[in-house]
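Q: How would the structure tokens look for this protein?
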Amino acid sequence: MVVKASQPARKNPSVGARAEAKPVVVQVSAAEARLSDYLSDEEVERDRQGMRDTMKRLDLVPNTWARAAGFRNANALYNWLSGRTRSLSLDVRERLAAVLPGETAWSIIGRKPPRARKNAVDAVMRQVPIRTAARASLWRRVYELPKRERGSILAVAMPDNDMDIAVRIDDDSINELYSAGSYALVHSLRPQDRLRNGDVVLVERRRVRAEAETVEITLRQVVVTKQGAVLRWRSLNPDFQGDVPMPWPYEGGKPFTNLQEPKFAIHKRSVYRITGVVVTVQTMARRILNG
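A: Here is the predicted structure in token form.
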């Protein structure tokens, strides 16, 4: 524990002599040292909050902590916590963790270390296949993208984030949250999975018209109020407004209809199904072509 500057100094082996501390050593690659290059803004802020939580839990003060770790000042720490800089290098985090027994460069930001693998780069990066694209009002016969538009993207593999497909965002129907051209990394919903208020979800909307079934793929946000749950557009475009009532709690993958939707003679009401939950979004992703 690092004492606050306003309190009387106490003898504390965790900040006194670094040689006495026995930090947990985690072998990582050079790619991990620049992990923030691949993280979304939301994930970077989550890491910042993880460090704030660590500082509160251990009663740490930036200046005292930084000096105990051998730094002349706490500028790097202050700049990162305040958002002036986007990254705090792995080397800095390791030195900060070294004076806190039992802590690692990952635990001080509230995360588990990447799983050890044969290839060090694979410890933080993995390929996620591009399966489909989200675009409102585009009705197509098949869910999957044409083969020439598929492939995969490199994504950060973080513990507890099971991302199994990537979805290309092709319009501005979700532009309050994500921009067109980005890739949403999605965890496919299983029957036992349960949604939470605020989740951004992958919505499959099917309809039958003239004996042909077509499908629309969109991203919407789950909003739960006292009046019930709805799927909501999150767009600045006035063309994408209005809510779709949904059952709550929702059982993973179960189809439902919107009873407020007009029923025309030429086709039945649309059938909605939530097929996945967005884990994160990459705005500058490079598509890797399949062999």
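Residues 1-37, 116-123 have pLDDT under 50 and may be disordered.

Helices lie at 30-33, 41-58, 62-68, 75-82, 90-98.

Upvote if useful.
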